[in-house]
Amino acid sequence: REVLIDVNNLKKHFKVGRGQTLKAVDGVTFHIYKGETLGLVGESGCGKTTCGKTVMGLYQATDGEVLLDGVNIHKLDKKSKKKFTRRAQIIFQDPYSSLNPRMTVEDIIGEGIDIHGLYKGEERKAKVYEMLELVGLNKEHALRFPHEFSGGQRQRIGIARALAIEPEFIVCDEPISALDVSIQAQVVNLLIELQKKKNLTYLFIAHDLSMVKHISDRVAVMYLGHIVEFANSHELYENPRHPYTKALMSAIPIPDPEEEKRKKRIPLEGEIPSPINPKPGCRFVARCQYATELCKKETPKLREIREEHFTACHRVEEIEKSNTIEVL
Ligand code: SF4
């Protein structure tokens, strides 16, 4: 399979005063195949949105590289950067604040077309109408303003804006989190349909694991700036191996109430710790029931434990071998 995006040891750190550094993304490596969806999941504050924005070039990387067709997007000159933005777009989390309230829908969708000088006059208008229809709206909506639409419709406008310049790669940054549950599935289904029609490649960022399962081919689980587990979607959901992923999975509600009652929940104590000056060792140590002294000293590397299934945990084999493992 052909790789479109190759991310190598990517870091994004922020100086936050008094010699402190917030390590939002701290050395992540993954690739995204052409035409697939890679899900990136984790709790709020794990660095997934910063990761998405750095992959898009909206943040300059502190270290590491993001290759698109082998070219590092963080080393582009202005002209090449513009070409890159035509190939890669982002759909934002909040459809309420990401659309300019003073612009008509036609101008919101047409803005990218103008920046890249793609169409003018009637052709531009026709492209805007085509995009509106593609996302389930119509040309009657073109002269209206964002406040006249519901949240789901606004997110459709955001999707139309991203697609108007015919990108190949889209970072979907929690595109459904701000929407009503009843609308979420509609927007996810629209994204799936558009992916097939336009052969799009997605990085789909979310904290909702059930939605990620529905849309993703492969999934990376992020915790405090690190990727702790990575596998194809089916494998990850059937066979999670990292203690953090197991806890996240066990919290997904099961529709059948009887099965839900029988399910063993793995408690995830406390909040995600601060990413400011994180200590060495496993980032999950403070919340992990299996932690040992080694976990405090050495950061576990992401290693392949089954075919195409990677986990960063010193004790993953021991935990698997025994359900009665001694809790230290
Ligand atoms: Fe838990 Fe240690 Fe594995 Fe980290 S490395 S997840 S602390 S057992």
TrEMBL record:
InterPro entries reported for this sequence: AAA+_ATPase, ABC_transp_ATP-bind, ABC_transporter-like_ATP-bd, ABC_transporter-like_CS, Oligopep_ABC_C, P-loop_NTPase
BP GO terms, sorted: peptide transport; transmembrane transport
Source taxon at top rank: Bacteria
Domain ABC transporter: 5-249
SMART domains xrefs: AAA (SM00382)
PROSITE patterns, per database record: ABC_TRANSPORTER_1 (PS00211), ABC_TRANSPORTER_2 (PS50893)
Molecular function GO terms recorded: ATP binding; ATP hydrolysis activity
Record key words, sorted: ATP-binding, Nucleotide-binding, Transport
Family annotation (Pfam families): ABC_tran, oligo_HPY
Matching NCBIfam families: oligo_HPY
Family, as annotated: Belongs to the ABC transporter superfamily.
Name used for this protein in its record: ATP-binding cassette domain-containing protein
Organism (species): Romboutsia weinsteinii
Species classification: Bacteria, Bacillati, Bacillota, Clostridia, Peptostreptococcales
